[in-house]
Write a structure and sequence with these properties.
The protein has a five-stranded antiparallel sheet with strand order 1-2-3-4-5, with no helix packed on it. The chain has one domain. By secondary structure, it is mainly beta. The chain contains no helices and five strands. The radius of gyration is 18 Å and the shape is elongated.
Length: 98
């Protein structure tokens, strides 16, 4: 049998800004989206993966379909770049709101 403990503490800050582009898609405004996030790892996680913090910045677009009787009210596609000490990466995310 194994026994032990660990501390999984982190502090995070996240912000998203959405605004109309001036374009209209299916009678609804097309929005642009800007995101920024930062996480600082604390406790036993600090430095475990080779970095102490992780920052990401992103930009994308959001389609609004709330005017129609659909299950999905909004669809958002965002490209994000993440970076920190010894780490870099890129991701594309798809999100929907119900």
């Amino acid at each position: 049998m194994f026994s032990g403990s660990s501390s999984t503490e982190a502090a995070s800050l996240y912000a998203r800004y959405r605004a109309p582009t001036g374009l209209v898609v299916r009678d609804n405004p097309l929005r642009y989206v800007l995101e920024v996030a930062n996480t600082v790892f604390l406790g036993d996680q600090r430095g475990l993966l080779g970095f102490n913090n992780l920052t990401s910045v992103g930009a994308g677009i959001e389609f609004d379909s709330s005017k129609y009787k659909a299950v999905i009210a909004r669809t958002r596609i965002v490209a994000r770049y993440a970076f920190g000490d010894n780490v870099r990466g890129f991701a594309i995310g798809l999100a929907v709101s119900f």
